[in-house]
Each structure stands twice: as structure tokens, then as C-alpha cells.
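Journal club side-thread
Mid-discussion, someone asked how the predicted structure for our own chain would compare to the paper's figures. Pasting it here so we can look after the session.
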Amino acid sequence: MLTVKAYASPSAAEPLVPTSIERRDIGPNDVLIEIAFAGICHSDIHTVRGDWGPQAYPLAPGHEIAGVVVEVGAAVTRHSVGDRVGVGCMVNSCGQCVPCESGNEQYCVAGFTGTYGAVDRDGTITQGGYSTHVVVVEDFVVRIPDSIGLDVAAPLLCAGVTTYSPLRHWGAGPGRKVAIVGLGGLGHMGVKIAHALGADVTVLSQTLKKQADALELGADHYFATNDPQTFAQLAGSFDLIINTVSAPVDIDAYLGLLALDGVLVNVGAPAEPLSVNVFSLITTRRALAGSTIGGIRETQEMLDFCAEHKLGAEIEVISAEQINEAYERVLASDVRYRFVIDASTM
């Protein structure tokens, strides 16, 4: 076992503290990664604070991991020492069900093994990227192109693929009108990717305070949702809406913004249930859908796409001792647009 430095939450009600965690011995198909940077996702906060159910503590979160391979198992063929690599929200899956065999491990019938807070193959609880090193089976490690800095690449492993996947699946591109709800960690990557795909992109945010940022990121239009006229003016406008907000919203109001056969996709995951009036769907054959991250093949595709289009996350790099402050700032929407932890400060 390898003992490494980490930051972990002792309980749902306590701040994260410096500690040490154990990583398993490297098996024949494993890769040992020295972590350079780890992004802070809103999911980290939900999880360690018990918003999505009880957790096993202490728990080190983090599923936006970028680093360098420092050791490989004897049977590893995909990665070599010195490779720049990333790890996202999954570190394993059954590998045998239809979703896994089709490259959609995120929808594994048995449930994928999460990067943290999940039962690993050896029966231990997985610990995430708020640490200096991680051991991951090679099939769940992706290559980070040389043209993307490891710091701006880290958030792509969750925020990037979480928006890329539904944009690709529902056909964002030239001639399609796409709206991104919320301009945060997920939303800002949704804007960049939708713009690079060639779609006409609108940002829907609570106020006008992020308008200049949105236009600079690639949005064609920007509207404030706290203005009732916005929903009247934009009624029936969009082919695709990606809702990135991790808090309850008026789903019926946003469904009203869809054109015939339009789709509203939720990628944000609020702790509270959302309700919908069926007439918001049937009157113009609209659809309400959900999407979570992306498979390993699609994650690599997303990274290569970002390299081709020179895309990376907008980040604020912090030291490990600033994690708890960063959590409060995320909850206050006081980050533009992703905190990234410098793992060398663990």
C-alpha cells in the first residue's frame, strides 16, 4: 500500500482537513498517477455534505484529475511513464453489460465505480483527487493532449465531458439554436463547446452581471432569467437547452422556450426533486431528458476536440489550505469559473 497526502472530510458537518490516505498496490493493469491539479466540482460539495445520501467518512473527494504517470503495471499497454493523463468521475465498471460494451460506461447496468465514495473492486471505499497520487486501472485513464495545460485540463474531466456529451448526442451544430442555463463551472464549458460545434448559443443566467464574460466565451446572445420578459420574448426559440444549474428551477418555464421537438437536458443535479406539468411537454412534442458525464471513449474524444479548438477551462488555482473557502465561494457563485487545486500544496 502507498500512503499519500490528501484533504478529506471527516463528516458531513465538518470542513475538510489535511490527512493521509492509502492507495492500493499497483496491479498488472494499474497506472500510478502523480496528481498535478484537481478541480473542485459542485458534486464534491453535495457528496461530502451528505446532500445525495449518507457517505463513508473520512472521504477525500475530487473527480477532475490531471497529472503524470509515474509507474505502470506489467500488463499496461495504453500508458507509459511520463504520459500526461486524466481521470474523471469513474475508475471502473462491469465491462460486460450493453452500455459498457458500447462505450457508455457511465450508464453501466451494475453501476460504475465512482472516483470517490464508491465501493472499489477490493471492497475499499474509493478516495478522490484531493491527494498527491492515485492508482487507476488503465482503461479508465485518458490522455491529455500536449497543447492543453494540466491546470485548465483538470475541469474538462467532469465539466467538459458533462456538457460535451449531451451537446453531441442531441446534435448541437450549425443551424441549431442552443441555450445554456447557468454560467458556472459546467455552463462556461457548455458555451465554449457549443460555440466550437458551430451552434447559435444563448446564455440564460439569473442576472446580467456575467454578460460580458458569456459573450467573450463564445455566446451569441445573453438574457437574464430574473426578467419576466425573457421567457415571453424567447418562447419557442431553442432546439436544445442544457440546464447546468444544481438548484431547483422552474422546469415548465424553460420547457416553454423550446421549439417543436426541442429537448431540455438536465446535467445539473439538485438535491431536491423537480416537478413538471405534462402539458409543457405534449403541446409541441418537447422532451425532458437527463445526461451524466460521458464514457471513456467520449471523454478522450472531448479532450481531442478541446485541443483542436484550443479550449480549456477558465480557472482560479488555489492551494489545498483554501479548499474550504473555495467551497463557500462556489455556493455563493463567487468563482469564474472553476477552482483548481495545486496538488503540490497537499
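Post-session note: The CA atoms of residues 42 and 331 lie 8 Å apart.
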